[in-house]
Amino acid sequence: MSRQIVSVVGGKDAAAAGTYESTNPARTGEVVARVGLADADTFAAACRTAKEAQREWAKVPAPVRGRVIASIGRLVEANAERLAALVTEEIGKPYAEALGEVREIVDTCDFFLGEGRRLYGQTIPSEMPDKDLFTYRNPVGVAAVVTAGNFPVAVPSWYLVPALLCGNAVVWKPAEYAAASAHAMYRLFAASGLPDGVLNIVFADGAQTFRGLELALEEGSVQKVGFTGSSEVGRKIGELTGRHLQSACLELGGKNPMVIMPDAELDLAVEGALFAGFGTAGQRCTSLGTVIVHESVHDEFVERFARAVREAKIGDPAQDVLAGPLLDQKFADRYEEYLTWIQPHHQVVSGNIGKIAPDNPRGDFDGGQGLYYHPVVVDGVRATDRLFLEETFGPIVGVTTFGTLDEAIELANLPGYGLSSSIYTTDPKHAFRFREGVSAGMVSVNNSTSGAEAHLPFGGNGKSGNGSRQSGMWVLDQFTRWQAMNWDHSGRLQKAQMDVAEIEPDLGFRL
């Protein structure tokens, strides 16, 4: 029996203007949730509600807000298996990965519960006597957060937890195709004792969300926008917030390179490429885009990698598999387009391509009623190919070659994204030269392009984002504004840079 869910604003169910059916991509005829979709006015109203609630929430002492975050972590931990199972059911993520994703919420809460006691400012010496200088972190106000559904609970926690801890209120718009998972997560957050209106969840399509965000920004009821999704939509969000003199927190797509040096441990590199390229069916923003492999080990690497891909298990995400189905039909349709980018000069080395079906099976697996696709490795990719230059959200990885490390770095940077990257080498000089030259916000050495930890900054540059960072203490700058205060207790007006005592040196002195 499918769930019936609607937006929740100010602690109350909100009226719906339409309906969306969230289905199980492993069995597309199975409806996971019937979702009531809100319109732009409801989104804008939620932002006004959040604005009213935020005033009182900001007055709650930060250490007390930290204890609320601690409660959220314990609630998620106690419900981890059920939440992970729902994620698997709704988006087809293998259960082991879904459980790891839920663990990420707990880790994020564990980190930020202590930040409630560490929202430090500074006392700073003044250039004048009897005057003290201070800095404080203040909440920004209301954060409107729009998230994708490939990580339907972990990535939202990177926004929600620090935003709430810092004293902000939030209006969260999750992806429709992951609505049941998001609603379950909202309920866990609400059970922590958050006051009504401090966290609101609004289900809406993209057009209504964008219009609602426009209205809220025009009304002045949103002071921060967080967005995880495509580079194309991220540009529009950035333009919109820029018109209102705001800087959005943008976490966008990637074309993440993996460089294989001639001294790399190839079995380890193959293992990393397999997980980076095809875990979550290649539907991570940090998924491997192109393997850039040294010409001296190209043939051996490709042979090992292709064999590993052919032997990898694709199937029911409730089982022990590398990957399950694609997230939703719209991603399957888009992936079909990416497959048309394979050109005559390319060589598919991984076996079959396209949808897994009775007439195109993967071993004894015929795909059933799911959105399952063969993982694809394309060798012979050139730097001018669309497969090299553009993000391909799905289970397809390109391979190209290089001669020198400088050439590899140039190829790694050429597509213009800058999220994640990886190098496999046993020479520290190679690792540090790559780190220095690559444009990515994140670098892995002898590890996959995917994987984040709650206390490390996450984010990208170029087409992958605007330099904002999530996770760790760095995200605090997204959800607070620095306020400077000076207190002059001299009893007279002291003018900075004008009434400063001068001590004259003898600059002509010589020994």
TrEMBL record:
Has keyword NAD? yes
Q: InterPro entries from the entry?
A: Ald_DH/histidinol_DH (IPR016161), Ald_DH_C (IPR016163), Ald_DH_CS_GLU (IPR029510), Ald_DH_N (IPR016162), Aldehyde_DH_dom (IPR015590), ALDH7A1-like (IPR044638)
Coiled-coil spans in chain:
none
Q: What is its EC number?
A: 1.2.1.3
Keywords, alphabetical = NAD, Oxidoreductase
Where the record annotates domain Aldehyde dehydrogenase, the positions are 18-484
Q: Show the active-site residues.
A: E251
Q: Say which domain of life the source belongs to.
A: Bacteria
GO MF, one example = aldehyde dehydrogenase (NAD+) activity
Q: Which Pfam families match?
A: Aldedh
Q: Which family does it belong to?
A: Belongs to the aldehyde dehydrogenase family.
Kindly state the subunit structure of this protein: Homotetramer.
Its name, as the record gives it, is aldehyde dehydrogenase (NAD(+))
Q: Which organism is it from?
A: Nonomuraea zeae
